[in-house]
Amino acid sequence: MTRRRRLYDGKAKTLFEGPEPGTLVQYFKDDATAFNNQKHGVITGKGVLNNRISEYLMERLGEVGVPTHFIRRLNMREQLVREVEIIPIEVVVRNVAAGGFAKRFGTKEGTQLPRSIVEYYYKSDELGDPMITEEHITAFGWASPQDLDDMVALALRINDFMSGLFLGIGLKLVDFKVEFGRLWNQDEMRIILADELSPDNMRLWDIETNEKMDKDRFRQDLGNVAEAYQEVARRLGILPEGGPVDFKGPKVLQ
After folding, report:
1. Inter-residue contact 247 to 75 (CB < 8 Å)
2. Which of 60, 94, 198, 244 has a beta carbon 3.0–4.6 Å from 175's, enabling a disulfide?
3. Strands across the sheet with 3-9, in order?
4. Burial tier of 253 (Cβ tally within 10 Å: 0-12, 13-18, 19+)
5. Of the CATH numbers 3.30.1360.120, 3.40.50.880, 3.30.200.20, 3.40.50.2300, which one belongs to the domain with range 3-84+223-246?
6. 3-state secondary structure of 55
7. pLDDT tens per residue, the chain (254 residues)?
């Protein structure tokens, strides 16, 4: 079994040093968290499914010109990605009122928004990922105005593409969260999509029934979480043959 140095251990993923400079290995866990890590559980096979779903979406976005950190999938739970300087901002794009947004504005869940709304949250578990404005982002130096323009433009392109893709398989893209990173090449820098794209960080509802096919099933104790993720993968045509297969992670060098 490969030995790699662990660089970061997150709630749903672990990052290891990659085989070449400028690369990382991203390992997908079965852990599930909600409400800023106040709720925790394990969903068997989730990491396998998220790895495949994220691979598929990253590849499709790359084909339409969206730059991403994804290089290739290594196995059932790992993928090789480019090492980037993560910008500590979560960009959320909302198409339909749901979750905290619906509560915040007293809007009935499921209400179609007049247009896609972009929100920003500061990445900090300790602070509860507070909602922030462009003024906060630029004043504290988390991102420059140009960085922010690039991030929003990419987020809206991702929204347009994924909305159409999911519509074609009978799913409504309610909202999603993305993270971006700075990729450096000597003195040149560009903003690219990082992290993952999976039912862990987006809301997907069945178009006909509004059945939730995402992590809200875990948040709201609706049950059948793994089955919902499998259904998303099945509709995308990427469910591993025979269903999710477990894969033990690499041994860690301390």
Report:
1. yes
2. 94
3. 70-73, 78-82, 23-28, 13-17, 3-9, 251-253
4. exposed
5. 3.30.200.20
6. helix
7. 467 899 999 889 999 999 999 999 999 999 888 876 677 889 999 999 999 999 999 999 999 999 999 999 999 999 999 999 999 999 999 999 999 999 999 999 999 999 999 999 999 989 999 999 999 999 999 999 999 999 999 999 999 999 999 999 999 999 999 999 999 988 899 999 999 999 999 999 999 999 999 999 999 999 999 999 999 999 999 985 555 554 444 444 43
DSSP-assigned beta bridge partners for residue 27: 14, 78
Q: Are 33 and 12 in contact (CB under 8 A)?
A: yes
Residues 91, 48: Cα–Cα separation, whole Å: 25
| Separation CA 143–CA 35 (nearest Å) | 26
